[in-house]
């Protein structure tokens, strides 16, 4: 983006940065997806896998046998 300097496609930032040897702000493109995945898994666990009556949720299978 012209105003922030960020890009929506990390490859468009990583490629030129590696070619130019400019590694100062690449940490955000490496940390943010990992942190987002960990936060997303935590929220999923809190919302979707919550015990209703103190029971552990049954494991669900994707295919019936």
Automatic annotation (TrEMBL):
N-terminal signal peptide: none
Subcellular localization(s) per the UniProt record: Membrane
Bilayer topology annotation: Multi-pass membrane protein
UniProtKB keywords: Membrane, Repeat, Transmembrane, Transmembrane helix
CC terms in the record's Gene Ontology section: membrane
An annotated Gene Ontology molecular function: channel activity
Alphabetized Pfam families for the sequence: MIP
Sequence intervals crossing the membrane: 26-47
PANTHER family associated with the record: AQUAPORIN NIP2-1, AQUAPORIN NIP5-1-RELATED
Protein name per UniProt: Aquaporin
Originating organism: Aegilops tauschii subsp. strangulata
